[in-house]
DNA sequence: AAGCAAACCAACCGCCCTGAT
DNA sequence: AATCAGGGCGGTTGGTTTGCT
């Protein structure tokens, strides 16, 4: 059972957009807003696939787009975010106002990859190239890929790595060569009270807001998380700490130092 | 000036996720 | 629970531009 095509390909234009097509698309979206991409081409009088319209708008025509060269600050931010998120271009783009995922992806592949290679850093792992061949294990970078999470959990069930001396965040351990200013640390009292599970206090799991000491936050989901924990579904990792597993935290709201 | 290669980037493709029914 | 439509995403392609010989 195949999926119906998103449009009638036989009657759609492909390739570069003309000025007239751009104008039609802009005018239609200004009048009717974004959304319903499938029906948009017909309504706007465009012989284009709906997906093509969406892409053109998002990547090129949107008025809030920032055109022009990336700044050095943006470069470094992209590198940091990529080290954390991997090829999650849309997530990275969410941290760079006016930039699109496609733009960042292209920029990464054409500029930053080479920049890192010139620095002797493997762009895939963010480790020195000399180490890249040696440490090709799956935990060398942070990923939200499910398989990798499972490996991560096996290596560090609570998002921490056990050493002879102390417990330290697994994130830091895996990227010793990175100064990840983006990293968010839970308040110290967790580590003193609950070494076994730094995201619980007194057997209760805390959400990000509570763990940051934000009392009575509207966004507090401790009760939800607690229920999940009690059902044997407690997998509090550093990834969960960021709120991405439960989805309660919009990572776009994370503040960079 | 011509030819070629590398770099760049807009656009496409196919898959996945989510919400509605 | 199954199916479908719509939207979103990452990977890839291919046309254009730039730089070098």
From TrEMBL:
Lineage: Eukaryota, Viridiplantae, Streptophyta, Embryophyta, Tracheophyta
CDD domains, sorted: SANT
Keywords: DNA-binding, Nucleus, Repeat
Protein name in the entry: Myb-related protein 308-like
InterPro entries in the cross-refs: Homeodomain-like_sf, Myb_dom, Myb_TF_plants, SANT/Myb
Organism: Gossypium arboreum
PROSITE patterns recorded: HTH_MYB, MYB_LIKE
Subcellular location: Nucleus
HTH myb-type domain ranges (all copies): 9-61, 62-116
Residue stretches making up the Myb-like domain: 9-61, 62-112
């Amino acid at each position: 059972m195949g999926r119906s095509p998103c449009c009638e390909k036989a009657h759609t234009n492909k390739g570069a957009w003309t000025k007239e097509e751009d104008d039609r698309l802009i005018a239609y979206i200004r009048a009717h807003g974004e959304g319903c991409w499938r029906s948009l081409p017909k309504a706007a009088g465009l012989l284009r696939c709906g997906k093509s319209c969406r892409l053109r708008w998002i990547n090129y025509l949107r008025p809030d787009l920032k055109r022009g060269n990336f700044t050095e600050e943006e470069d470094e931010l992209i590198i940091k975010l990529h080290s954390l998120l991997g090829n999650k271009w849309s997530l990275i783009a969410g941290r760079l106002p006016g930039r699109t995922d496609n733009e960042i992806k292209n920029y990464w592949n054409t500029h930053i990859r080479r920049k890192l290679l010139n620095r002797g850093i493997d762009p895939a792992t963010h480790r020195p190239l000399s180490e890249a061949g040696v440490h090709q294990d799956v935990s060398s970078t942070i990923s939200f890929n499910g398989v990798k999470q499972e490996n991560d959990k096996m290596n560090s069930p609570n998002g921490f790595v056990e050493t002879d001396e102390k417990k330290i965040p697994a994130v830091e351990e895996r990227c010793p060569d990175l100064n990840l200013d983006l990293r968010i640390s839970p308040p110290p009292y967790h580590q003193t009270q609950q070494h076994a599970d730094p995201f619980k206090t007194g057997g209760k799991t805390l959400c990000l807001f509570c763990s940051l000491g934000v009392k009575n936050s509207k966004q507090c989901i401790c009760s939800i998380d607690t229920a999940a924990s009690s059902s044997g579904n407690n997998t509090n990792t550093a990834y969960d700490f960021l709120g991405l597993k439960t989805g309660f935290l919009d990572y776009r709201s994370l503040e960079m130092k």
